[in-house]
Design brief:
With 341 residues, the protein is α/β, with parallel strands linked by helices. The protein has nine helices and 13 strands. It is globular.
């Protein structure tokens, strides 16, 4: 089994180093590819100084789906794994990848958060306090914000299709599954892994869950400049939700009801914050406006995307649609051609 591991990152130098250390220890033969957003914390220099990273791809976009695609398109393995920069694989992870893909097209497993060490370094915050927008920082279609702690895969039946979701930062694909998906949809700033799960389900591709495909997630230091979290972007949460559902299933009563249920649940929760004095009526109104604008924009864009790509991939913004993701590439696999392109 030839394995490529893609690690998307942005301003996460210290946790990325720990992630790469774990890969070197537990998957030493894997091809490791780091897809680095425009980091301002010394990530580029740190990665280039390491002998255990095969390719460093520098991109200008700040979104995780562009980073994923940038890594996937230079990967050479017949198995391609995605591991988030703040996740650390364990001793049995590689064997679990092999076993899981013996019977499925995709395999995923649990992610266990661990608290940061006291007095840890905060070099992973960018100069302006921004971080990469990640799938697991937004609820999207999830009913439980602490979904990382579940005991098995999350499954939903939508418009008659059973969807098995996977962890976007701890997942391995057969190469042909990623090829058929055309990678991740770069329209989405968040929810790309969930969108891919919808498309896999409609293609009849299987997603396996293995408890031994486990990683630990290193949470950021609470003293970091970005405080470890971005503010909730309600507009983009609902734009992404509406876009995914309309793109993949079209206008159906179950789709409309699903989006409406999420909006109503969040509206009641936000109203409770106002009653408890944790928010203000004006903020509640502004949040409602953001939700409605997000739903409207995402629905319109989702229907346009559905009409643009009627293939099973349902991905009008995938890997094959652009060739300018990388602004620089340092490739240790091609020493005779030079290391920079």
């Amino acid at each position: 089994m030839d394995l490529s591991v893609v690690v998307p990152t942005l301003n996460g130098r210290d946790r990325l180093a720990a992630c790469l250390d774990a890969l070197a220890a537990h998957a030493p033969e894997a091809e490791v590819i780091v897809a680095n957003g425009p980091s301002a914390d010394g990530t580029t220099g740190m990665v280039r100084d390491r002998d255990d990273v095969d390719v460093l791809v520098e991109i200008s976009d700040r979104t995780v789906n562009v980073a994923r695609n940038a890594g996937i398109e230079v990967a050479t393995g017949d198995i391609v794994a995605l591991v988030d920069y703040d996740n650390r694989i364990g001793e049995g992870w590689l064997d679990a990848v092999r076993a899981g893909l013996d019977d499925a097209d995709v395999v995923t497993g649990p992610v266990t958060p661990i608290e940061p060490e006291q007095g840890g370094r905060d070099g992973e915050a960018s100069a302006n306090g921004e971080r990469i927008v990640r799938d697991d920082e937004h609820d999207d279609e999830r009913d439980d914000e602490h979904d990382d702690e579940r005991d098995g895969p999350e499954r939903r039946t939508i418009a008659g299709t059973e969807v098995t979701y996977f962890e976007g930062g701890n997942v391995a694909f057969r190469r042909e599954a990623l090829r058929d998906l055309d990678g991740f949809d770069e329209y989405l700033r968040t929810g790309g892994a969930r969108d891919a799960a919808h498309r896999l389900a409609q293609m009849g591709r299987t997603v396996a869950w293995r408890e031994d495909l486990a990683v630990t997630k290193a949470l950021p230091s609470p003293t970091a400049a970005d405080c470890g979290r971005t503010a909730r972007e309600w507009g983009w949460k609902y734009r992404a939700l509406a876009y995914r559902l309309l793109k993949n299933y079209g206008v159906r009563p179950t789709v409309v009801a699903r989006a409406g249920t999420h909006a109503a649940t969040d509206a009641f929760g936000a109203a409770g914050d106002v009653i408890r004095g944790e928010s203000t009526p004006s903020r509640w109104v502004a949040t409602g406006r953001d939700v409605l604008v997000g739903l409207a924009g995402g629905s319109s864009d989702g229907l346009v995307a559905r009409s643009r790509d009627r293939s099973p991939a349902r991905n009008p913004n995938g890997i094959s649609k652009r060739a300018d993701r990388a602004v620089a590439k340092y490739d240790r696999r091609e020493p005779k051609r030079g290391t920079e392109e």
